[in-house]
Amino acid sequence: MNTKTITSLAALGLTFIVPNTLVSGDYYSGKEVYEPQGSVMFEESPYTVDLYGGASALYNSNTTQLPNGIGAWASIFDFGFDFNSANQGGRGSEYGFGYDGSAYLWENATAANGRDPLEHRVDGYYQINGGKTVIRLSSDYYRNNGNSVNFLNVNRESRSTQSDDLGLNASMVREITNGSLEVSAGYNLRDFVSGSGLNDQNSYAMDFALYHSLGIAPKTNYGVGFRFGSDDYSDNGEQ
Fold it and tell me: Is 234 exposed, middle or buried, given 0-12, 13-18 or 19+ CB atoms closer than 10 A?
């Protein structure tokens, strides 16, 4: 009788067949093919990992954000990864984290304006999915070195200034009859480097929203929401 021990390394998608016991007269051939029939410990990977990279070109008409600033080209290389648990949207817990990096190569030192060419962003989350309630904790950190042209994340006056940006958020979504109740709280920090001449920023916010689904349009919701919070800039009054 030819007995084999099956070991599965699901994370890498590999299955090993290891000879365990060979009785006299039997033989083992490495060409034998074994197809698991549900006896392997992990048939599905407990997590997923995505790697990515890319390249692009950018022309910035005013790299220094000055009235007499110059325009220049930059080559941008993006790279990073995302790590997520396999239970996406299922009952129980799920989690994930990722890293995004960008390298900016300006055409000359004048256009670079003394900035560090690397931008870094790290984010992660942990989520609990119940029968009718979803609770999520998330955070992100961004090292802004003034190269970014993402105007949604970087204010106009600080596009060429270095800062450490931190965000923390907690949210809860509760299904109710014909709708949902959503509550969240967040904190954001922008810490500019010394000598930048810009004021650091702290922001707090709480959101409350109530949604109701339309009976004639099951995939359409309407609702009302409120936000309460404050913006505190160093050396300035709280807003």
Answer: exposed
